[in-house]
Design goal:
about 0% strand; 21 helices; about 75% helix; mainly alpha; Na/Pro_symporter
Length: about 500
Amino acid sequence: MSVSNPTLITFVIYIAAMVLIGFMAYRSTNNLSDYILGGRSLGSVVTALSAGASDMSGWLLMGLPGAIYMSGLSESWIAIGLIVGAYLNWLFVAGRLRVQTEHNGDALTLPDYFSSRFEDKSGLLRIISAVVILVFFTIYCASGIVAGARLFESTFGMSYETALWAGAAATIAYTFVGGFLAVSWTDTVQATLMIFALILTPIIVLLATGGVDTTFLAIEAKNPDNFNMLKNTTFIGIISLMGWGLGYFGQPHILARFMAADSVKSIANARRISMTWMILCLGGTVAVGFFGIAYFSAHPEVAGPVNENHERVFIELAKLLFNPWIAGVLLSAILAAVMSTLSCQLLVCSSALTEDFYKTFLRKTASQVELVWVGRLMVLLVALIAIAMAANPNNRVLGLVSYAWAGFGAAFGPVVLISVIWKNMTRNGALAGILVGAITVIVWKHFELLGLYEIIPGFIFASLAIFFVSKMGAPTAGMVERFDAAEKDYNLNK
C-alpha cells in the first residue's frame, strides 16, 4: 500500500474533515443536552439528512447490493418495506414525539421520555429500556465496525484485525469530542456523499455494460429469474422483508433526530427532504447490485472477490470502473454510511449510560461538565465492547443489523407509536410492551419459527400486550393532562 495511493489520500482527507467538524461542534457543547440532543437546534435539512444517514448504515452499500447481486430483484422487497415504514414514522411519530418529549420533562433520551410520560417513580421502566438499548445497540455497533473493517480490508489489503481498528478509530474520535452536533453535522456531509455515490455508480456500470438493453439481456442470460420479484419467495418471505419497515418506529438513533428538531414546523419539510433522499439512495443501491450481475458476468476474470463475498460488489465496481481519485470518493461513501450510523449508536448508548444510569442512580448532583465527560468515556467503553464483538471475520453485516433492528422495532416501536397517539396508555402497558417485544424477538430468532422475521411477531405481541395491560388500569390525571397539552401544541404548530 503506497502512501501516494489516491484512495488512501482521499480517505485521510475525508476522515480529517469529519474529525475537524467534531472539534467545531466541541465549541458548541456546553452541557449534557448539547452533547445528547444538540440543544434541540436542528433545522429541517440537517434533521432530514441526519435521520437518513443515521438510518442507512454500511448495509446500504454492502449488505443490500450484495443481496440483490446474489438473488436478483426478489430481495428488493426490503427496500419497499423500508420506504413505507420510514414515511409512516415521519408522518405519525416525528412531530408528536418532538412535542411529547418537551412536555414530559424535556426528555433527552427514550428511557427518559418513557419514565416521564408514564410517571414511573420506581425507575423500572427507565432501567429496562436502557438495558434493551445497550444490548441491541452494542450488536448494531458491531455491525458498523464489521462493515468498516471489510472496507479497509478490501481497499488497502489490511488484515481484518488491523482494519477493525482503522475503521472504528475516526468515528470514535469525532463522536467522543463533539457529541450530537458533531454527529448531526457530519451526517449531513455523509448523506450528500452517499447519494452522490449511489446515483453516479449505477450510471457508470450501465455504460460499462453497454447500456440498458445490453445490461438487461446479460442479467437475463445469467438467470431469467433475476427479474422475478417473486423468485424463491413465499408469502412469509415477502412479509418478512416488508416487515423491516416496522423497525422505524423503535430505532432510538432515528427518533433522537425527531427529538432534536428545532420545532414541529421543521418536521414536514424534513420529511419531504428525507424521503426523497431515501428513495434515491435505495433505488441506487438496488441498481448497483442488479447491474453488477451483468458486469461480472461479462468480466468473470475480476469477479473473484465478489464471488468470495457478495457484500463487496459496490467496493469492487468502484475500484474497477473509476479513476482512483473518484474511486476514493465513492469508497468514502461506504465509510460515510458506516460512520454516520455507528456514531449515532455510540452516542445513544452513551446517553443511556450517562443520563439513565449514572445521573439518575449514581450521581444526581453531577455537574454538566462531569456528565459530558462521563458521556465521552461511555462512548469509548461501548466502542471497545462492539470491537470485541466484531472480531470474528466471518460476521455478515446484514445478519447483525437484522437482529438489532428487530430488537428495537419490537421492544420500542409499539411503545413509542402508541404513546404518542393514545392517551390511555399506562406505565404497566409500556413495561409489558417493551418486555414482550424484546423477549419475543430473542425467542423467535433462537427457534427460527415459521421462517418469519422476528420483528413481526414481536411488534404484534408487544402491541397487544400494551393494549390489554393498559386496559387493566388507567392513566393518572397528570398523564392525560400532559398528553392533551402536547397534542394541542402539535396540532397548532404542525
